[in-house]
């Protein structure tokens, strides 16, 4: 399997960078929405959830698609599926362990302080309570919190490596790729790239799990796995399918229309234009959610590969910085939000400070961490920097 088989799409790099930037902004908005979050602002309002629903349906699925897409090229560069699994484990499992032990703990501490009246300082919490593998104030400790994405991605990658090792023994990967091309790139002129995943997600959200909530606890999180594992595998196969990529570039306007229509219905339910949310709305809400989820993914990939398929000197730095930014961003958001709680600042000032502090803190973490050789693997960077395009998460 040669890297040359996969045409380079810089647009997918830009899409990944934008998706993670949007995720950081989304988590800042969580401080102000009336949804459950670690620390809440006094300015929390119900209406803030409405614009957040514009991205809520697809933001995580998109991350798994672009991660699967990147995994195809990474596997092609590896000597074997085992070598691929070992390389990805070093780049994912090490930061995950470091994150659980060092980066994440301030988040449950801040939540316990702000919501449960926890009075001990952070050092006492970290050394005496965090690693007790117990429940405190309703929180299971220790926790991976937002790093669940890395855990799931790592496990999906290991499963992919195992399957690829088995398939290579029976020599069928090419036939699987051909079947994928036929289903998504050629079926009814390529409309399958929209229709088939939409049907899958519609069945999940409207019937199978009926808009069930994700737990991010690995076990018992069926709704997440049947949503994100297929997205990851779709991205992996997409990297080797020019026919499917061409279908996406052809049908992205319809995907955008689907996404906007789905969002309109979802927002209408949130604003009670369509009526109170109850069992009678589950099926229609689930279908709207699926339309927004997959329609937006097709639209964004189509737009990115068509209009952003060009390189820029800053792309390599941003591509490398995304993972360290992701690791630390939520801890910064939660701590700054906790610090701002007694200040009584206006909404605009509080939001601006959170954005500025998060960007500055993430940048300091990345630029500082990449200079410390032993810290680099712990924050998702290569031990020895090389003058090549960084590997995607």
Account of the 3D structure:
- Helices cover 68% and strands 2% of the residues.
- It has a two-stranded antiparallel sheet.
- It starts with 9 loop residues before the first helix and ends in a 24-residue tail after the last helix.
- α7 crosses α10 (222-238), α8 (173-186) packs across α11 and α9 (192-208) packs antiparallel against α12 (279-307).
- Mean pLDDT is 92; it is low at 388-392.
- The protein has helices at residues 10-30, 49-56, 59-77, 81-103, 106-115, 122-129, 148-170, 173-186, 192-208, 222-238, 242-270, 279-307, 313-340, 347-369, and strands at residues 134-136, 139-141.
- It has 393 residues and is mostly helical.
- 40% of the residues are buried.
- It has 14 helices and two strands, in the order ααααααββαααααααα.
Q: Which secondary structure elements does this structure contain, and how are they paired or packed?
A:
Blueprint (H helix, E strand, L loop, with lengths): L9 H21 L18 H8 L2 H19 L3 H23 L2 H10 L6 H8 L4 E3 L2 E3 L6 H23 L2 H14 L5 H17 L13 H17 L3 H29 L8 H29 L5 H28 L6 H23 L24
Antiparallel strand pairs: 1-2
Helix pairs in contact: 1-3, 1-12, 1-13, 1-14, 2-11, 3-10, 4-7, 5-13, 7-10, 8-9, 8-11, 9-12, 11-12, 13-14
